[in-house]
Design a protein that fits this description.
Blueprint: H1 2-8, H2 12-25, H3 29-41, H4 48-57, H5 64-73, E1 112-115, E2 118-122, E3 125-134, E4 139-146, H6 151-162, E5 172-175, H7 184-192, E6 196-199, H8 209-222, H9 231-247, H10 259-269
Helix pairs in contact: 4-5
Domain Integrase catalytic: 105-267
GO molecular function: nucleic acid binding
Organism: Acinetobacter baumannii NIPH 80
């Protein structure tokens, strides 16, 4: 030590001052590594609130403001959301009442469903996604993809979703006024299975805010800013993301659990 100080011509007090400062600056080094690990594991999809919950799930209780400050110091930002495809093409069939009335909270699984169609565009080649979300936990319970916005996209999604219902479960299913939801076949399938159809007011995206929010999250976290060589590659990514969204992606309003974890826990507690 004394040879090092002599060679650098540094006073002993100055050396220990800088050493202490260094220790202070590094007191969050382990926490920063944990934050980075979570951030990159989820491909930049988590902001400071969700990372705070992920740390808590790992046994680390850290104030969210501290996590936010450390993320800012490391220039870690969650992804941003952008706009959506609109399927409304005028009245071509029966338009249903807005039964849901923006009541997006459900007390149990398969009580309230929401659905919509969104579009992805890769240099002129398009992919359409039609999912159904359960408002109890935000889980995507069924979905279909197709290269064109054909009725079969919604038809097959609904067919898959209906298999998830027990005999006593008759949810409200809410959508916008897209042409697919005005089709006689779609409305007949709902009626025959005891589901109540609900539709947003024309041009009011807030009436289906939960699905709008999901599309925003989906596109910001696995589409915008990414490069895809083909629609097939994008389709594979979307399917993998929905599995991740259901099983791994934790939510603040679900007490730090993923949708599937929350549903499983609630059914076990019932």
């Amino acid at each position: 030590m004394k040879y090092l100080l002599r060679a650098s011509q540094m006073a002993r007090s100055t050396y220990f001052y800088h050493e202490q400062r260094s220790k202070l600056n590094d007191k969050y080094s382990d926490l920063k590594q944990q934050i980075k690990m979570i951030y990159h594991k989820h491909k930049g999809r988590y902001g400071y609130r969700r990372i705070t919950l992920a740390l808590k799930n790992m046994g680390l209780t850290i104030n969210h403001k501290c996590v936010q400050r450390l993320m800012q110091s490391m220039k870690l930002k969650s992804r941003i959301r952008i706009a959506k495809y609109r399927s409304y093409k005028g009245d071509i069939g029966q338009v249903a009442d807005n039964v849901l009335q923006c009541q997006f909270k459900a007390d149990k699984p398969n009580q309230k469903w929401v659905t919509d169609v969104t579009e992805f565009n890769i240099r002129g080649d398009r992919l359409y996604l039609s999912p159904i979300m359960d408002l109890f936990n935000g889980e995507i319970i069924a979905f279909q993809t197709h290269r064109r916005p054909m009725y079969e996209l919604v038809k097959n999604m609904l067919k898959d979703a209906l298999t998830k219902l027990a005999d006593h479960e008759k949810p409200i299913i809410h959508s916008d006024q897209g042409w697919q939801y005005q089709m006689r076949h779609y409305q007949r399938e709902l009626a025959e299975n005891g589901l109540t159809q609900s539709m947003s007011r024309k041009g009011n995206c807030l009436d289906n805010a939960s699905m709008e929010s999901f599309f925003g999250i989906l596109k910001s976290e696995c589409f915008y800013g990414e490069k895809f060589n083909s629609v097939e590659e994008l389709e594979k990514t979307v399917k993998e993301y929905i599995h991740y969204y259901n099983h791994e992606r934790i939510k603040v309003k679900l007490k730090g659990l993923s949708p599937v974890q929350y549903r499983t826990q609630s059914l076990e507690a019932a």
